[in-house]
Design a protein that fits this description.
The protein is of the alpha+beta class. The chain folds into 2 domains: 147 residues, PurM-like, N-terminal domain (60s Ribosomal Protein L30, Chain: A, 2-Layer Sandwich), CATH 3.30.1330.10; 173 residues, PurM-like C-terminal domain (Phosphoribosyl-aminoimidazole Synthetase, Chain A, domain 2, Alpha-Beta Complex). It is built from 10 helices and 13 strands. The strands form 2 sheets. The chain has a 7-stranded mixed β-sheet with strand order 8-10-7-11-9-12-13, with helices on both faces. A 6-stranded mixed β-sheet has the order 1-2-3-6-4-5. The longest helix is centred in the N-terminal third of the chain and has 19 residues. Bound molecules: adenosine-5'-diphosphate and magnesium ion.
């Protein structure tokens, strides 16, 4: 069988069972934003890793080396945020083409150093090897949390409300601009490119949600709203209904869409790389959650739908009709 037939998620599903030699202290292995190990005096360790490959995850001429370093760490921090954890330390491995300038790699490190300082994370080690052709960056991030505070993908229940902690679609619009699929004036476009190239992981937001104990399930949006909500639904054995008019789009995105003619909702639902949090909350706890975020600090909070028993994802249109929509997001190997 070819990878193009099985896809990223099919492959991960197929190796899942063989990956655990002993279940001792493994609270969560494959299948969430982080693996969870422990507990040690009431705390657990959180593990996440991501690999970025030139020309697949980034294009050297579309992102500055500084931004690339920042983003490589940011996407891992976002997975720790999604579990409600606090980041601790990093192992950082690079595959570097031999002809690459040392100064460029040092600029990547500047971006990494700044984001690590901002979130008080230490780089404790890694590996450096020669790569035949393309730059490869692999980050492993270890964090921790109180065992009881960790929020998994599997905790969503029918009737829970679904919330987002920010707008969706701006990052994906930035990618469209970088790929010159759309060409707005610089004054409009630069916002989207910055959102795409310099994501800010919502560690503080994740911590507030985790310590509140109000959320049932949580995930960060990396593959796209529908795809990532789909992960929560699959892990929780439920489905979801979204309200079309409630999907939060920035005013900038609406303006851009009206200028260059595309449907902003398509980017919001399937675009990806938003790196905000999606959480589900039992109805009885929604009031408390909304109180927590009433000042929109450190993030805004938007109610976008609810969890239902029936599998799949439905969309309630503005006229009240409901349609079933497929789960479409980024999946490596399947285009
Ligand atoms: P995210 O988008 O949150 O980074 P992924 O979709 O990349 O999550 O991964 C889903 C799950 O599969 C995670 O638990 C991850 O650790 C696991 N996983 C991905 N690739 C592999 C692999 N090659 N071997 C073992 N586990 C993997
Ligand atoms: Mg994630």
């Amino acid at each position: 069988m070819k990878f193009s037939e099985i896809g990223e998620f099919g492959f991960i599903e197929s190796i899942k069972k063989e990956c655990i030699a002993s279940l001792k202290d493994v609270i969560k292995g494959i299948g969430d934003d982080c693996a969870v190990f422990g507990p040690y005096s009431g705390r657990v360790l959180l593990f996440t890793t991501d690999m970025l490959i030139e020309d697949i995850h980034f294009l050297m001429d579309k992102i500055t080396p500084y931004q690339l370093g920042w983003k490589a760490i940011a996407v891992n921090l976002s997975d720790i945020a999604a579990m409600g954890g606090r980041p601790l330390f990093i192992l950082l491995s690079l595959g570097i083409p031999v002809e690459m300038n040392v100064e460029l790699i040092q600029d990547i490190y500047k971006g990494m150093k700044d984001i690590c300082e901002h979130y008080t994370v230490n780089v404790l080690g890694g590996d450096t090897v020669a790569s035949p052709d393309k730059l490869i960056i692999n980050i492993s991030l270890i964090g921790d949390a109180k065992e009881k505070e960790v929020i998994y993908r599997s905790g969503a229940r029918p009737g829970d409300k679904i919330y987002l902690t920010g707008n969706v679609g701006d990052s994906s619009a930035g990618l469209k601009i970088l790929k010159t699929e759309i060409s707005p004036p610089n004054s409009i476009g630069s916002h989207f490119i910055k959102v795409h190239n310099e994501p800010n992981p919502l560690i503080e937001t994740g911590r507030i949600i985790a310590t509140s104990g109000l959320a049932g399930a949580m995930i960060d949006l990396s593959d796209g709203l529908l795809s990532d909500l789909g992960h929560i639904c699959k892990q929780s054995g439920v489905g979801a209904t979204l309200f079309r008019s409630k999907i939060p789009l920035s005013s900038k995105l609406k303006l851009l869409a009206s200028r260059v003619k595309f449907n902003p909702l398509d980017l919001a639902l399937s675009g990806g790389e938003d790196y905000i949090l999606l959480l589900t909350v039992p109805e009885a706890k929604t009031h408390d959650l909304e109180l927590l975020f009433k000042d929109k600090r450190p993030s805004p909070l938007y109610l976008i739908g609810e969890i239902r028993e029936k599998e799949g994802i439905g969309m309630v249109n503005d006229d009240g009709s409901t349609e079933e929509i497929g789960v479409k997001g980024f999946n490596h190997f399947i285009s």
